[in-house]
Structures are given as C-alpha cells and as structure tokens.
Design a protein that fits this description.
The chain is α/β, with parallel strands linked by helices. Helices cover 32% and strands 18% of the residues. The strands form 3 sheets. Strands 1, 2, 3, 4, 5 and 6 form a 6-stranded antiparallel β-sheet that branches. A 4-stranded parallel β-sheet has the order 7-8-9-10.
C-alpha cells in the first residue's frame, strides 16, 4: 500500500530531502503506510527512513527530527484514505430523518475508527475489521468512542438492523484487555433499550471500568421526517424521570465503589423531566460534553466564575439578541439576568429559536438552522446578534441549511457575532463595549 504526496511545505525536512508532489510514500521505518493513523504513529520516531516511489523509481530518504515535529508532507485528504461508511440501518439514525435538498456531506453516515481518534466521533464497531482492531491494540491508541446502545446482542442486531451488531460487542472486552480506554454512549429509545435493558447495559459496561471511562445515556432525537421509518416516539416526562433515577442510582453505586460515577444522563433528560441540573462536580472529568452531558453545568460554572472575576466597570447597552435552542434558553436567561444584576445597563435578550426545520421536538442549539433564525428574528431590530458556534459546522462558516452568518447580517441589517460555547467567552461577548 502507498499514499500519494500532494504538497510539500517549503523549507521543511521533506522539502530539503527533495521529496516532491506526486511521489508516493510506501513505508516509514519499514512499516507500510495506509492512512493517517499509520503515518502519525510511525512519524513519532526521531530518525525516519522513508521508502518513496518516484517517477524515476524507488528511493530511500533518511530524516532526523524532533519527536513531535512534522516533516512537511501533505496528502489529498486528512485521512490519507477514503472515509469509511456506516453499514448499519439503525432505527433511530438521525441522518435517515434529514429532509431532502441539503448538502451531500450531511447524508454521509460515517463509522470510521480514525475519526474517533481525530475528532471524537462515535463508532459502532460493526465496521471494524480485524486488522483495524489489532492495529488499535498494537498502537495502543486511546480513547476510542463507542456507540453501544445496548449490550444485549440480539437487541443490538434488531436496533441496528445488522446481524453482526451483537458479535462486534466482543471488541469491547478485547480493547479492555489490551488497556484501551473507552467512552461509550447509549442512545435510548422508549420501549426498546430503556428500563431493564438500560440496567443490563450499565452493569455489563461497568465491568470494564476503569477502561470504560464514561457512559453517556442520551435520549433519541426524532425529527418530523420519519415517513417509512421505524415507529418511535419521544420520551415522556415520567419516563425521563425514570431514566434519571436509574442512571443516578447506578452512578452513586459506582462512585462508592470506584470514586467515579462512570455513567451520566445527558442534560436533555433533566430538561424533559423538569428537574434541576446537577452541578459541575457531578460529571467528574466532563468527558462526554460532545454528547450534551454536563454542558449546561460547565457553562454555568464558567460564567459564574468569569462574572465573579470580571474587572469591567460597565457593559454595553447595545440591544443584543442571544440566539439559542429552546432547551438551553432558560439556563442562558438565568445567566443573562445574573450579568444584568452586575451591569444594569446590559440590554440583552435570550431568543429561543423553535426548530421548524427539523420539527419542534428538536430543541438543541446545535440543530438550529439559519433559516429559522432569520424567520424568527425578522421584524425585530437588534443592534447585534450573538450566535453560539455550535450552530455552525466545524469550519464555522455555515448553518446546517447552508445559511451563513453573513447572510443573516445582510437580511436583518444587524451585526452577527459567533461566540464559543464557553461561559467566560459568553460573558465577554455580552458586556463588551
């Protein structure tokens, strides 16, 4: 196997060794290079022997470098390979619930272990080859994020519509035996993998603690685009309370036995149950923030600390709209009110944007579209609009529906500021003059 060099950074070690675009990298210190994991792992050595294939034939290149230094080669994609697509047809898959007409990348279902290590994506293990699993163990790459959903093999096959879904659970034990750390998630669907099945999954995964470092319990997200899909419904308030009770009880047992809760309910459960959100200490290392676990608690803690340490004497009196999803609006309103007690001239309003694009059952800020922001802020003048960066794709340039912050500025004739999901950054954006 080999990967093709597409660019060489000027004055880099590879440039000085006369490696050129179009050359193919075959091996590093005798190890074949198939993708980014191979490349990054074997490039950690300080003395490298690169076997290259050039238009004039094969040549060996020796490079000496600092341990963490790059050698200056660039490739066609960040993976140096094609992205691995998901082989499952999960009954709760969010991508199957997307409306037509969106950009192509939003319909691609990835299930790629490399993205787990690079970006924190979750994988189901059903797409993992024996070679890939062995490489993870040989390289001792940690942590790996796993979408488990249930540890009942037959139920997992049913929920994921994949007859190999039960067998693939065996990788969890193998990874634990090899010392690979794991973060797991359970996406719950009412009547399928909650109740007794949830209890079973928590107990089965806790066996591998501390290698299973955390377990996020997350409610299924359902859009209005479910024609022809499995009949699922949202959790009720009482059902959300039951999930919280079960997860918190198990977490207390793990805390007493291991010093950590290990299993955590997503923030959405507390919102649905209309219960107070736990404090930051409840979530230990906050390892499941991307799953919406502890995000509200962390944001409140950061905001309170920044407000207590704030040295500013005045805040802006510009009429400000702080845009968010329906779920987070009450918590952000509390924070804005706290800031207003310190800065009476603060003129900020939290705008809870209802999700008409996906349906009103979708309440998280990360799935708010630019079109819904435009429609719901139209007709009301603000001096500026604050938008959390979680509403935009990773590149920070557009919403899910391809509307850009610049378009919102033009349509609403208002300055738009994108704010990091960080309590201190939020306070700074609110009061800055």
């Amino acid at each position: 196997m080999a990967v093709t060099v597409t660019a060489v950074l000027p004055k880099s070690p590879a440039y000085r060794k006369r490696i050129h675009p179009g050359d193919r990298l075959l091996t590093v210190n005798g190890h074949e290079i198939a993708d980014v994991l191979d490349y990054r792992f074997y490039l950690q050595e300080t003395k490298l022997l690169l076997e290259m294939e050039t238009p004039k034939g094969r040549r060996n290149v020796t490079i000496r470098k600092a341990e963490e230094a790059d050698i200056g080669l660039e490739f066609d994609t960040y993976l140096m390979d094609k992205q691995h697509a998901c082989r499952n047809k999960c009954v709760f898959c969010f991508i199957d619930q997307m409306p037509p007409g969106m950009r192509d990348s939003l319909y691609f279902k990835d299930d790629d272990s490399r993205l787990s290590f690079l970006f924190g994506n979750y994988i189901t293990l059903t797409n993992l080859s024996e070679h890939e699993a062995q490489r993870i163990m040989d390289m001792h790459i940690s942590p790996i994020n796993i979408s488990v959903h249930t540890t009942n093999p037959a139920l997992r096959c049913q929920m994921m519509n994949n007859r190999f879904a039960g067998e693939s659970l065996s990788f969890i034990k193998r990874f634990a035996d090899a010392g690979i750390r794991m973060n797991c998630q359970l996406v719950l669907c009412p009547g399928l993998n909650d109740g007794a099945e949830l209890e079973r999954s928590m107990h089965d995964l806790a066996v591998y603690s501390p290698l299973v470092e955390s377990i996020a319990v997350v409610p299924v997200g359902l859009t209005k685009y479910r024609d022809g899909l499995a009949p699922l419904r949202p959790f009720t308030k009482d059902e959300a309370c039951a999930v919280i009770d079960a997860v918190e009880l198990f977490g207390r047992q793990m805390l007493a036995a291991t010093g950590r809760r290990v299993v955590y309910p997503a923030d959405e459960w507390y919102i649905k149950a209309e219960r107070p959100m736990p404090d930051e200490e409840f979530y230990d290392e906050m390892s499941q923030l991307e799953n919406g676990v502890g995000l509200v608690a962390l944001l409140r803690s950061q905001f309170a600390e920044a407000l207590a340490d704030c040295e500013a004497e005045e805040a802006t009196d510009a009429k400000t709209a702080l845009v968010t999803g329906v779920a987070a609006a009450p918590f952000l309103t509390e924070m804005v009110n706290e800031a207003a007690q310190r800065f009476p001239q603060l003129n900020a309003q939290v705008i809870a944007v209802e999700n008409h694009f996906f349906g009103e059952t979708i309440t998280v800020a990360g799935l708010v579209t630019g079109g819904d922001v435009l429609r719901q802020l139209n007709g009301v003048h603000y001096d500026r609009i604050l938008i959390p960066e979680v509403m935009l794709r990773r590149e920070g340039d557009r919403f899910l529906d391809d509307v850009t912050p610049e378009e919102i500025e033009r349509e609403l004739h208002t300055a738009v500021q994108v704010v990091p999901v960080d309590g201190a950054a939020l306070l700074a954006a609110l009061i800055e003059r």
